[in-house]
Each structure stands twice: as C-alpha cells, then as structure tokens.
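batch job 7 of whatever, protein = D-lactate dehydrogenase
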Amino acid sequence: MRVVAYSIKSFEKEPLAIANNKKHEITLISNSLSPETASYAEGKEAVIVFNEEDNVSALVINRLADLGVKFIATRSTDTTHIDTEAAALRSLKIANVPLASLSGLSARELPMALAIETIINLDNWQQNRCLGDACVCSRACDQAGSKVHIKGQPHQH
C-alpha cells in the first residue's frame, strides 16, 4: 500500500520502519496535514495522521478523497481530530489505535506500540479484512453499508 505519514517526529521513524518491515511504501514527512500539504498524498492510498497536529477537517478530507486516498489511519486512540462524517460521505475508512493495545505500556514503549498498531491497520485494509476494535468507520465491515456502526459499541462481526 502506498502511504504518506504526516507529523512524523524523529523518535517515530525507527519504530515505523521496524513495524512496517518494508511491507508498505510509506513516505514519512515532518509536515503536518493541512489544506496546503494534502497534495503530498497524491498517488497514495492512505494517510497516517496524529491528533490535533494534523488538520483532518472536511476541506482536507475532500482534497484527500479527490487525490484518491481511501484510508486514514491515526497514530492515536482519539479520533476527535478527524471529521468522521465528511470521511463517511466520501467513503474514506478510518482506523485508530485501540486503547486496550496500549494498556500497561511505559512511555518508552508507546512509539513502537503505536507504530505496530498503525501498520496492522494498513495490513488489514490491504487484505480487505475488518479492523475490529480499531475501526472507526460509519458501517460494519461485514455488512457493506447495511448496518450503521454506533460509536462506542463493538461491531457485530
């Protein structure tokens, strides 16, 4: 999968490279996602973002969709920085890092755990598999549009 990762800090590069293990073609950039930098996603299938550093508003989501992006993975448990309604309207799928996957980890272990979970989401998308607890889509994966996903409740798979 061709991916661009925005807002990458120096301490995140190695964990992402290790977790990826050359499976996906990931471009790492330090710039945050914004209307001006959305063009870096041209030719990419997915973008990786992080919290409020990245602007994932309706305007940006529409630009990403127009560029052919189909997936937004956040390197965080929170998704309030993403306009999920706009993403649903443009059929972009969203994934986060499930909170349970970070339980009991030290601050030193977090970058690797976030990287691993992010790559797992990319792997699952590439294989057309459901993301389970990481899915923040508006619909259940196995129902292709017939069941609405209620935020905070598990999918019915």
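notes: The helical segments are 10-20, 58-66, 84-89, 110-126.
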